[in-house]
Design a protein that fits this description.
Elements (H helix, E strand, L loop, with lengths): L2 H26 L6 H20 L8 H23 L4 H33 L5 H20 L9 H24 L2 H4 L1
Length: about 190
């Protein structure tokens, strides 16, 4: 990996995670005034505000935010293609960019769950970031909790969802590797 590849990965991976968080915070109806949420809003507003004038929301989703996620993914791979081969392959760009966006959603969910678990041992609900992690993950965890039997105060929903995400990641790799090569691992 060259220094340019590292820089591109860092910048685009970080920004796509921030935009995914912005969309996810809106879906979860998280506390807008939380300091962490304010950072996410301020980091994404310069690009999202003009896009919202053109792209309306639909079905309760921020379609401008989803479009921005895909644009960031496509831009990353377009730059990588230009720097490596000097040309852009549109079909490859669409496939890789879309897969990249989907994988980053799963990766972000996994890290939010992990951070929530670790912070629950340390801060015990008093930190603003832990409140956000709870607001983001509760809609995913509560359906699992409702289906689990009472285990005497032990909550396995977080572990079940984490293992499910890891399984889906491995399954996607198993399915996609014969079709398009080992790109899933590299995303």
């Amino acid at each position: 990996m060259t220094a340019l590849d590292f820089l591109l990965d860092f910048v685009f991976n970080t920004y796509i995670m921030i935009v995914i968080l912005r969309v996810w915070l809106q879906i979860a109806r998280a506390d807008f005034y939380n300091p962490f949420n304010q950072f996410i809003v301020k980091a994404t507003d310069p690009l999202l505000r003009p896009m919202r004038r053109v792209i309306p929301g639909a079905l309760g989703l921020d379609m401008a935010g989803i479009t921005l996620i895909l644009l960031v993914a496509y831009t990353k791979f377009a730059i990588m293609m230009i720097t490596k081969t000097g040309e852009i392959l549109p079909l490859t760009l669409l496939i890789w960019g879309s897969l990249f966006a989907v994988k980053k959603v799963g990766v972000l969910i996994f890290w939010i769950l992990l951070l929530r678990a670790i912070m629950s041992w340390v801060s015990q609900g008093r930190h603003p970031i832990e409140q956000v992690m709870s607001q983001l993950s509760e809609p995913l965890l509560s359906p699992i909790r409702r289906r689990l039997p009472d285990l005497g105060g032990i909550d396995l929903s977080l572990m079940i969802l984490s293992f499910t995400l890891l399984f889906l990641n491995m399954l996607a790799n198993d399915i996609l590797t014969p079709l398009i090569g080992p790109i899933w691992i590299q995303l």
